[in-house]
Structure formats: C-alpha cells, structure tokens
UniProtKB/TrEMBL annotation:
InterPro entries: EFG_III/V, EFG_V-like
SUPFAM superfamilies with a match to the protein in the record: EF-G C-terminal domain-like
Biological process (GO), any one: cytosolic ribosome assembly
Organism in which the protein naturally occurs: Nyctibius bracteatus (Rufous potoo)
Coiled coil: none
GO MF annotation terms: GTPase activity; ribosome binding
Superkingdom of this protein's organism: Eukaryota
Domain Elongation factor EFG: 4-50
Full protein name: EFL1 GTPase
Gene: Efl1_1
Pfam families: EFG_C (PF00679)
One Gene Ontology term, aspect cellular component: ribonucleoprotein complex
C-alpha cells in the first residue's frame, strides 16, 4: 500500500500468452476501479513437451490414458497456430452420446 493514498501495488509474474485481454478483464471485474500496468520482465522456457503422450505403465497409472491434465505447452502452441491460420489437431466432440429429440419424428 502506498503511504497517504488508497493505492495498492501488487507485483506478480504473468505469462505473456495469459496477459492478452488481462487489462480489460481486470477493469470489468473491478468496475473500472483497478487498472494494471504490465511490464516485460524476462524470458523463460516452458519445461513440458507439447507432443508428449503417456507411454509407460507408470505414466498411464499416474496421468490416465488420455493424460487429462492440460499440457500448457500444447495449449500455447495451438493458440499460436490458430492465430496464424495453421492446422490445429483437436477433437470437436470428445464424448458423444446419442441425443433424443423432444418431439417424435413421424
């Protein structure tokens, strides 16, 4: 808190990919009372592999068959590919079930 004012200063590290739209979201959620000032700090490599899939029995037991926890590196890679108009491998329907209509077809 800044002395003599009602200003709070919060410092945090936020990935650049997550910062797009951050300022608008902060203003919306605080009704315009808060405004962030974003400053680039440093580069850091993402340690995960975007093409990783579980192969050993231990990995299947720990992560599950589909590795349901989201791979951040793959998420960022797919976002860049979408933005540039490149092919993105994604499933439209993952767990489909037959749907029933409310009215009967005659």
């Amino acid at each position: 808190m800044k002395e003599g004012t009602d200003v709070f200063i919060i410092k945090a590290v936020l990935p650049v990919a997550e910062s797009f739209g951050f300022a608008d979201e902060i203003r919306k959620r605080t009704s315009g009372l808060a405004s962030p000032q974003l400053v680039f700090s440093h580069w850091e490599m993402i340690s995960s592999d975007p093409f990783w899939v579980p192969t050993t029995e231990e990995e299947y037991l720990h992560f599950g068959e589909k590795a349901d926890s989201e791979n951040q590196a793959r998420k960022y890679m797919n976002a860049v590919r979408k933005r540039k108009g490149l092919y993105v491998e994604e499933k439209i329907v993952e767990h489909a079930e037959k749907q029933r209509t409310l009215s009967r077809n005659k």
